């Protein structure tokens, strides 16, 4: 007995760990139930008109999407639609109730969601026969259509409150010239109810505009009337589930057809129609109502009592407008209510092509920078050219003085000849006048000689002054041969003084050019004086200068040749460069100035050696029509 008493506690202490191990083994051996093994909850969705009738189809799709996304347990959805909502004469309620009872007799749904007033009225009327203990959510229903007195502890309501007056106020705000508002509505029992509400709520607007009711008309007649509305009209679209001809209209088909035919903008109180035909305004947000209803449904599925969930009616959302319709009906954005949102605005070029525009802008900026640099460089170059021409003009003027210095003896000889003749004639006239019987005829001849010699001296002075005159470049129409002829006369005295034969062959045809007479004469003088200097060391009988003018294609050509030793081949390309000279006392600017003058006349000058000896300088100037 004592041994047992001692051993018994030992066995008892040993038994507890064994029991724990066995229990853990049993738990591990029992497979856990996965979510797939959990029986899905059944949600019955009852539609008032059908699965494609607005606005209820939009609510149903959003609610189904939100619940499926947020639910923690598997779900199945079962959609059913009433048949009698489209026609008040339909007697299908009884058979439909029997059908639902048979369908859900063994396994009733875990939740019923009724969309719209007809569906809500149906399930409330037949609750006892169908689903007395099943929780229900009434949604997509206006508060005025809810039968609050018949609600039970298993019912939750997510209703809306439609403000039709706000829609008409918006119409008159954005279209202040409106004179007629047409209300489009169907003839189903639900739509008849709302026609009465609309007439009551909008009665005050009849003092401001004319209200026309397109309710008891087939939709085809509505289309015809909407196409011929008077100016300054607008359309208020309520619903068109069933028209007066008994035709049911699903989705947006009827509204889109009306938008195409109507000659007035269309407004509505439901945003489910927004995006194709409506201008916009303050509307019920189907997404906001759907998400609220889905939240209530999930709370019920998770065990919360439906009757304890209270949701206030959902008011109109902030106004929103379709930018495309605003453009179509020429509605200014300045007239929209405060806090309005504008949708479907066509993006500008920057929004559509940001990369391309940015690249183009950068490219344009780069080009603008380059153009600015080039213009600045061009301006600097132009300034440099102007300054260069000014300096060259100064040098040309100095060069003319230098040339005139070399022509001093010739000029003095030319002036002395007529002055000496004038003196002789004057002395002769004086002797005749002192005689007892002066010969008047001879006196007249003497006076004529004096006048002629005076003119000769004046012409010499005029040519000299013209050569030495400092004047800007003044292009005029000239005959190159006439300029050469005048210059040759000026050079003739110098040629005689230097014992050089000067010959000229001038073309008989006119060589019209655009140029400055003084500067061209300077070129000819420079070349002729250079030719005289080049022949200083050869025998007198061989000193000859030839000056020719001719026409070569579209150019007037002038050549000045001498019989001197010619130009060394290595100097032919350098003789026109500034400060290049073969004279010990020369400045090296004469030929450089000559080239500058010729190029200013858009011409060309070059030098070459003649086969028989001597050098030849050629000048080509564009004829007048080419220069122009």
Q: How is this structure best described in words?
A:
The chain is built from 18 helices and 19 strands. The protein is an alpha/beta fold. Among the domains are: 38-160, Rossmann fold; 164-283 and 316-343, Response regulator (Rossmann fold, 3-Layer(aba) Sandwich); 471-628, 2-Layer Sandwich (Heat Shock Protein 90). The chain is rod-shaped and about 165 Å long.
Radius of gyration: 58 Å
Largest sheet: 5 strands, parallel
Beta-strand percentage range: 15-25%
Across the major sheet, the strand order is 2-1-3-4-5
CATH homologous superfamily grouping of the domain at 471-628? Histidine kinase-like ATPase, C-terminal domain
Q: Unreliable runs, pLDDT <50, ≥5 residues? A: 1-21, 25-33
Show the helix and strand layout.
Layout: H1 2-29, E1 41-47, H2 56-70, E2 75-81, H3 93-104, E3 111-115, H4 117-125, E4 136-142, E5 155-160, H5 164-174, E6 180-185, H6 189-201, E7 210-214, H7 219-226, E8 233-239, H8 253-261, E9 266-268, E10 280-281, H9 286-301, E11 320-322, H10 323-328, E12 341-343, H11 349-352, H12 354-406, H13 408-434, H14 440-468, E13 476-479, H15 480-497, E14 501-505, E15 512-515, H16 517-534, E16 544-552, E17 555-562, H17 590-600, E18 604-609, E19 615-622, H18 624-627
Parallel strand pairs: 1-2, 1-3, 3-4, 4-5, 6-7, 6-8, 8-9, 11-12, 14-16
Antiparallel strand pairs: 10-11, 13-15, 16-17, 17-19, 18-19
